[in-house]
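Lecture notes, part 5. Sequence design as translation. It can be helpful to think of inverse folding as translation between two languages: the language of shapes and the language of residues. The source text, in structure tokens, appears below.
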């Protein structure tokens, strides 16, 4: 076992290319993630919140079929470039175009007063973007398991992807909130529709340009079986893979924990009325998050992945209760909430970083488990679960949050070319509660399935030991052998 650990199949340059590819993809995805998509459709495009919530939920449900189906198609693919890279070579151009179209609706339909036309454009443009995003996202994360037969190589690639996406990918929302504040205060000659369109153009060129590195500069090294599994066999993986099913159940149950990200956007936009203040609040935590990547190996020596999941959820809930109670009567006072949120984000950022690496590793472990159990590797279907979970969490939380807006007293009315917020007596308190407290308490429910997750410790070590011979046989077939350190 020691001999195979000393090898390195993925060079530092390729590890960097994989990380840069993810940062480019995340640059565009961050414009859609959290509350930005909801804010864009309601405040910028002027579409009723009920229509937005319905559309996002409908397409989120479609992902429950679409993502595993795409994963099964990928697992069935056999080409001289591999089963994952062909999709990564094809998808950048259409993904770039649909990203720009998604956020260009308010400009393209600037003279349209009919809400029905806007809703149709929203459905079509978002469906197209989501379709091509899926075609790229599933094989990209599948590549993290197929890029090398060695766990150490995979961990380096995943860490590179998450680390660089935090730096480069996070720039899109940084620029977005700054430009929003400058626009709303008439400091720059750009309207909010123009701001979102500009960021989409940057994401579609610069961001997708980086994402193309995954197909151009990265390789598949884990040799697949000659036999092509059927689509039905691909779906059967989800039933046979018990550890994977437990991860799926945990994330689905904890989906409403994503409400925090959506209401964060509305909190800074409508309660504090300074969109860019979140940059100051997030900065110390972001810096700590980068340092956390150095701590993860030591953390994993002390705790297994399952224990880290529990530690994450419980710490978040305890912190959320304390912050909510302290700020309950001062949620609109910057002097009070800024230090509170700084402290909260410092604590959360540590676990946010860990949470970007651990779940992806756990999916990789379930792929090894299925290879040990059946002799087949199913990166496509297995990592479709990871992308499906991310999109389901985003879709359901964004849909639910948007649907809740009228119930907490928040709506928008047109005043000239702008959408102006109208709030009830307790709207700000509800936004504070849904931003700080409620999602993290609901997130505790997602820990329940992990009580039965046992792919850790001696069992996982035994599986990896049994796979040693097969991995050594695979490594003999690897083109070019091991890369130099």
């Amino acid at each position: 076992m020691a001999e195979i650990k000393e090898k390195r199949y993925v060079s530092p340059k390729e590890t960097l290319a994989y990380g840069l590819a993810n940062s480019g993809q995340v640059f565009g995805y961050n414009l859609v993630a959290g509350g930005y998509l909801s804010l864009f459709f309601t405040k910028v495009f002027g579409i009723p919140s009920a229509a937005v919530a319905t559309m996002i939920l409908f397409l989120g449900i479609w992902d429950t079929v679409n993502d595993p189906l795409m994963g099964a198609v990928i697992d069935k693919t056999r080409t001289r470039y591999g089963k994952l890279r062909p999709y990564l070579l094809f998808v950048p151009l259409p993904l770039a175009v649909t990203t720009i179209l998604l956020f260009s609706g308010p400009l393209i339909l600037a003279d349209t007063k009919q809400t029905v036309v806007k809703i149709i454009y929203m459905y079509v443009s978002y469906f197209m973007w989501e379709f091509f995003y899926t075609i790229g996202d599933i094989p990209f994360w599948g590549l993290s398991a197929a890029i090398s037969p060695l766990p150490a190589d995979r961990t380096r690639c995943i860490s590179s992807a998450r680390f660089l996406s935090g730096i480069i990918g996070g720039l899109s929302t940084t620029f977005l909130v700054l430009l929003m504040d400058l626009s709303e205060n008439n400091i720059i000659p750009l309207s909010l529709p123009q701001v979102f369109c500009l960021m989409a153009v940057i994401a579609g060129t610069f961001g997708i340009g980086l994402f193309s590195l995954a197909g151009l500069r990265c390789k598949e090294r884990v040799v697949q079986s000659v036999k092509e599994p059927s689509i039905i066999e691909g779906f059967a993986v989800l039933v046979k893979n018990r550890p994977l099913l437990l991860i799926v159940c945990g994330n689905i149950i904890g989906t409403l924990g994503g409400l925090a990200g959506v209401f964060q956007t509305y909190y800074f936009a409508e309660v504090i009325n300074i969109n860019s203040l979140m940059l100051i609040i997030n900065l110390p935590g972001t810096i700590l998050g980068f340092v956390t990547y150095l701590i993860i190996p030591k953390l994993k020596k002390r705790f297994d992945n399952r224990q880290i999941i529990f530690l994450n959820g419980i710490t978040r809930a305890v912190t959320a209760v304390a912050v909510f109670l302290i700020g309950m009567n001062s949620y609109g006072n910057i002097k009070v909430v800024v230090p509170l949120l700084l402290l909260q984000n410092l604590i959360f950022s540590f676990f946010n970083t860990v949470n970007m690496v651990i779940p992806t590793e756990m999916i990789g472990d379930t792929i090894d488990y299925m290879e040990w159990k059946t002799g087949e590797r199913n990166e496509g279907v297995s990592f479709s679960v990871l992308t499906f979970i991310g999109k389901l969490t985003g879709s359901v939380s964004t849909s639910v949050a948007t649907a809740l807006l009228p119930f907490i007293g928040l709506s928008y009315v047109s005043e000239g070319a702008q959408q102006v917020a109208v709030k009830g007596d307790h709207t700000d308190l509800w936004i504070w509660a849904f931003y700080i407290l409620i999602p993290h308490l609901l997130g505790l429910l997602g820990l329940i399935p992990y009580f039965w997750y046992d792919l850790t410790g001696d069992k996982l070590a035994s599986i990896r030991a049994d796979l040693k011979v097969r991995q050594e046989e695979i490594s003999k077939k690897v083109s070019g052998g091991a890369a130099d350190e």
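The translated text above is only one of many valid answers, since several sequences can fold into similar shapes. Confidence is low (pLDDT under 50) at residues 1-5, 478-485.
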